[in-house]
Amino acid sequence: MATVTDVRTQERVSTGAAIWSWITTIDHKRIGVLYFVTSLIYFLVAGFEALLIRLQLATPDGQILNPDLYNQLFTMHGTAMVFMVAMPMAAAFFNFLIPLMIGARDVAFPRLNAFSYWTFLGGSLLMHSSFLFGQAPDGGWFGYANLTSKEYSPGLSIDFWGLGLLVLGVASVAAALNFIITIINLRAPGMTLMRMPVFVWMTFVTSFLIIFAFPAITAALIFLEFDRLFGTNFYEVAEGGDPMLWQHLFWVFGHPEVYILVLPGFGIASEILPTFSRKPIFGYSAMVFAAVAIGFLGFSVWAHHMFTTGMGTIADAAFAGSTMLIAIPTGIKMFNWVATCFGGRIRLTVPMLFALGFLTTFLIGGLTGPMLAAVPLDLHFQDGYFVVGHFHYVLFGGLILALMGGIYYWFPKITGRMMSEKIGKWHFWLMFTFMNLTFFPMHFVGLDGMPRRVSTYPADMGWDFWNMFISISAFGIGISVLVFLHNLVVSYKKGEPAGNDPWDARTLEWAIPSPPPEHNFDEIPTITHRDQVWYDKYGEGHGSAADLSKVDTSVAEHSEEDEEHEVHMPNPSYWPLLVGAGLTIAAAGLMIHILVAIFGVAWTIVSIYAWSLEPASTPPDEH
Amino acid sequence: MSTEAAHTDEAHATTGHYVRIAIILTVLTVMEVATYYVDIPFALLIPLLLVLAGMKFGLVVAYYMHLRYDSKLFSGFFFFGLTIEILLLIALMVLFGIRSG
Amino acid sequence: MSDAALAHEAHEEHPTTTGLNHRKILMWAFLGSECIFFGSLITTYLVYRGKSVVGPYPDEILNIPLTSVSTFVLLMSSLAMVLALAGFERAAGSGADEERKQRELKKGRFWLLMTAVLGTGFLGFQVFEFYEFVHHGLGLTTNLFGTTFYVLTGFHGTHVGVGVIWLVSLLVLSYFGKVKPLDVELGGLYWHFVDIVWIIIFTLIYLIPS
Q1: Which of A298, A535, A544, C44 is within CB 3.0–4.6 Å of A259 for a Cys-Cys bond?
Q2: Residue C181: which domain range?
Q3: Is residue A537 part of a domain?
């Protein structure tokens, strides 16, 4: 029976029991931590792959990697960064924060939440296990047909990719459904939609994008695997099939995916900037509606990835137009963030530095977006380094910097300890500088015609200097990541105690202890205002010196004795893990033997039955 | 939950109501199948079939899945997905139409 | 997939923000997502219509009379499904006496069984249809028509199969008193969705001549 007391006794239990408690956990905070640690490991793996790529490209006629290995590395770098770093890292924040921010004890379906994590782990391990067989996916993260057909990719590499992504898709959709229902249905009394923190809104929109975008790639991947495993003709030109079908379905998913990746970054920045400007977010409703507009428009722009495929002028013009429209809501957000800082009493802490770094680099990445949306320019840029520069500005500048800011901002809440500001500033300046030095020159070599995904280049193209420059800078990013890891470990072990509200922040999670107790809130708060915690501290004031005197103590430190009115938390369960494992076995079985696949399906079905027949929580009277 | 059950209980039509809808659905299906045997100009046939299918679809969704009486939120989820898909379908058919001719 | 597994997850005793049940919202959001999945399959069938380079072609092989019957069977299963739900709801409703409730529960179970039987009947028609087609030389890999047709109707059939298993599970669990009207309602929503997908498939694939 999981009650409050269990949490406090946890430190004293044996290692085996501790591991078991992580395997069976359905606590959103612990699942969030699992997501975080897993995605951090993949971040290091995929970052290491990027460095190998840069070593190869540092000099013309590079000899370090052979072309096959090069293809595997850039494919796995892209795939892992998108599906196993960016999305699960965002999911880590969603998991940890959403229930806290809306005043709930957990997500709507705690076991489904655990299932999402274990399925994500299964799918990502399945795909990475390909390295053991020397058959890592090598068709690019976009996996264009008919490069991926059995004829041109005979081994198992594409199957690892396709089946792995199918499993990851199940995990993402399950998680997204869970967050949608949590946000709709578990808000604390008084927490109206328009009182939710912007981060919650961004999660909401992201989750919608996931459930409506992923089915398209699921269908496309099913076609791909049917072609490869059963010899169907979906992308088979000789039989009348059309490889363009893959591109359309992939980008129907792929462009909303870009917003799936970046909206969580928007949300994190929208929490950090007001806190350290000591002002409410500027234009809250405009922020919300801009995000919703981005979500809608995101479905209408996919073919801007396909201008070179000969869709015809009318189609090109239509997709160029809809793409440029997205600049409007994105611009609204930019102006609102800047206006949030304007006139505020800014504190340049590490999270704030990262948020400001996000603003500037995302602006650069955003500005090259409309350039690429212009068809005549795009025809020149397509498949070149300009595009690589563009999306690394958006994804590294827009997402990774924001996620880093989020880590520094919420680390105290998650662990109860502060991260070192001193090391953090080193981390920020190293990462920010080298990030720009790495990705900005990519625009230059792109304009000079350097193609992407090519393992080497001749010496007389005029690309030598910048490539060496980029490679050296990339290792600078690597060093900044080491500084970050060092900070993470040191601060986790001996960071200063954080207290409930170290940043003098605004949203609900700061009103409860750090780290939060298993049941989050002793009493579900009642919400009367946006930025409720700020209002409770300062009323309508803006945290002037006079207001500051009454800080912090007003947030009640709940005494231990208080907690005797027990909160019923759902029971731990290992069935989510077993269902996720069953799905992974079924997917792997398709590559091994059909009997293994059938075994995996049977395993999954049995586990689903066991899951649904298992009581979610012990009835109160047995307490 | 209990209030919801009470609500659906009275909003839910009676057995007779369900059977009447089933009869309409059957009639519509018979009309659809009839187009296979009767000669109808092609230009008329496709809109006719789409309208008939749309009516059947609408009846099942509105009454059997009781969206008509249920929260607008449910309709929102369903029709959002449906709308995106219809637009994608039309867009892709146009794009592939341009491509092949 | 996992929806069935959530049977006991919702905290029904706790009030929710909207007053709506978690699982019911989950079901509808899931169905919205499924729209895109089936939509992608249908779109693929339509953009590849008439692109097969070898036969057999659809108009040579599709059996409209047979499929009309199976369509009718699936349509009637939807009627049985709403009647099953009505039975379970009346059995759980307040006011009626115990004997009447038992009668309604029995009716609910009967119609639940009928739904599953009709669903199985539909699957039988589909197996027969596939068998006939293969007999006439249309395999999964024969041409684009075979590929898109079997994958689309096959995934639909799989959904029907999952639905039948779901309904039978509900039926069995109802004898242990573990089935609430909401459980039947959610199974029903899924079932009707599978039915409306077939309404679309029947028109777009079978009735509109190629």
Answers
A1: A298
A2: 31-207
A3: yes
| The pLDDT of residue A544 | 52
Let me know whether B51 and B92 are in one domain.
no
Interface check B88 vs A, CB under 8 A: yes
Helix ranges restricted to H, chain C: 22-47, 58-61, 64-92, 98-135, 144-174, 181-201
Q: Which of C33, C52, C149 would best serve as a mutation to test chain A binding (most A beta carbons within 10 A)? A: C33
Q: What is the CATH number of the domain that holds A437?
A: 1.20.210.10
Quick count: other Cβ atoms within 10 Å of Cβ A328? Answer: 12
Residue A154 CA to residue A156 CA, distance in Å, equals: 7
The answer to whether residue A293 scores a pLDDT higher than 90 is yes
What is the mean predicted confidence (pLDDT) over A373-378? 92
Interface of A with B in 221-250 (CB under 8 A): 242, 244, 248
CA distance B12 to A467: 69
Give the residue numbers spanning the domain of B56: 1-70
Residue A442 near residue A63 (C-beta atoms within 8 A): no
The DSSP call for residue A86 is I
Number of domains in chain B: 2
CB distance from C33 to chain A under 8 Å?
A: yes
For A497, the 3-state DSSP assignment is: strand
Q: What residues make up the domain containing A437?
A: 4-557+567-622
pLDDT band at A430 (very low <50, low <70, confident <90, very high): very high
Which residues of chain A lie closer than 8 angstroms to C166, CB-CB? none
pLDDT higher than 60, residue C2:
no
Task: Please report residues of B whose CB lies closer than 8 A to that of C76.
Answer: 22
C138 located within any domain:
yes
Q: CA-to-CA distance for A530 and A271, rounded, in angstroms?
A: 12
Residues C202 and A580: their CA atoms lie apart, in Å, by 35
* CB spacing of A299 vs B80 below 8 angstroms: no
Q: Please check whether residues B51 and B78 belong to one and the same domain.
A: no
Q: What is the CA radius of gyration of chain B?
A: 18
pLDDT exceeds cutoff 60 at A7: no
The whole-number pLDDT of residue C92 equals 87
d(CA A601, CA A125): 18
Distance between CA atoms of A2 and C151, rounded to whole angstroms?
46
What's the pTM value of the predicted model, to 2 decimals? 0.92
List C-alpha distances in Å: A359 to A159, A340, A506, A602.
Answer: 39, 12, 21, 49
**d(Cα B65, Cα C186) in Å, to the nearest integer?**
10
CB contacts of B52 in chain C (<8 Å) are 203
In this prediction, residue C12 carries a pLDDT of 42
With contacts defined as CB-CB under 8 Å, which chain A residues touch B93?
none
Answer whether B81 touches A (CB < 8 Å).
yes
The confidence score (pLDDT) of residue C209 equals 80
CA-based nearest distance A182→chain B, Å: 14
CA distance A227 to A243: 12
Dihedrals phi, psi of C119, to nearest 5 degrees: -60, -45
pLDDT tens string C77-129? 999 999 999 999 988 887 768 888 889 999 999 999 999 999 999 999 999 99
- Same domain for B41 and B76: no
